[in-house]
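Q: I have two molecules that I believe assemble together. Could you output structure tokens for the complex as a whole instead of separate predictions?
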Amino acid sequence: MADVLRHAWRLARKDLLVEFRSRTAILSAVVFTVLVLMVFNFGRDPTAVAAVDLAPSILWVTFTFAAMLALNRAFQLELENQALDGLLLAPVSRSSIYLGKLIANLMFVATVEGVGLPRFALFFNVPILNVLGPLLAVIALATLGFVAVGTLFSAMTARTRFAELLLPVLLLPFMIPPLIWAVLATATLLAGRPLSEAAGWLRLLAAFDIVFVTLAFFLFPATVNE
Amino acid sequence: MRLLKTGRWITALGFALLAAVYVRAVAFTPVERMQGVAQKIFYLHVPAAIWTETGMVLVGVASVFFLFLKDPRLAWWTWDARLTLTLLLFLMYVGYLLLRGAVTDPGLRARYAAVLGISGMCLVPFVHLSVYMFRTLHPQPIVLKPSAPSLPGAMLATLAFSFLAFSTLYVGFVTQRYALSLLREQADQHA
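A: Yes, here they are, computed for all two components at once.
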């Protein structure tokens, strides 16, 4: 297990290094996130609906789109020059390849969310500072769940036609349950209600994470074995 | 092909049973006091929904067999999503078929579909659980609950009858679909 984690970290480091050197994808994703938030601002009538009622949905739709961009990228990176074959020939287990991709994707999405969250608070005048801790916990739980499934699915869609289109179609049905729970938990927090009222949603999110991280870990080898 | 014919017969039987369900539900089942005639949707809606969820679980079970227990040269699970009423599960089925369409290599297609199938099976309990967490238009469980069913005998009989009809339809559809893909595979081999 220690080996699996070590290899996974190596792999994640490689991906993040590639990203850090060019910064194309991360910059695009961040700009995209800010643009989506702006579009939402023009798409609502501030006199009819208070910002705090719409805010949870805006936040999560934005994060969903941003995560999709990141996930599409993860395995497309390996298609150039048959890099995936090289990766599979390396003496590391298939599962550590999955974990590595998962870690890199999580870091990527977390960065985008980290930039997006303050912009969201600023644009929509939502006070998040007093609930920042619990809100970050909700974001972390939900993100882990759908990035885990997304990483598994993007390994499959990357090698199909219409990869950019197929991933959202496959992934969104799996994202919708955790997104519903995350939106409800976020709404509870932003309305100034205690965290205990959202405990049920958080438990479901945690259960989703455990089930799908484990599942993806064991199913991933089937997506790359020849 | 015999299997295809069998599937057609089972489907025809299912449709006949379904017609009988309508007759029984409309004419021979008492009207529920609180909700009136609208409650009759229950007899069709519940069995159809049960098979929507069960279908995804069957795909998952078959996928487990395929990936881990079975000779990987054979493929045995394409099927149609006609009984689907739950939009989310419906979209999952569409995604499942889209993925199969997008991969040309049969071996790769089989493995990808199996991975998605197993994931889908694991999502079903979450979707199912979410239903209980919300107060929806749907009433609380009245048949499958710890105490005895609180449904009058005549209503319960109609429901059981309809469940039989939908089960028959489901088996019919799957059998036909399975037979069709077997034929397609044979045709591909001859080509």
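A: One point stands out. Chain A touches chain B through 31 residues (CB under 8 Å).
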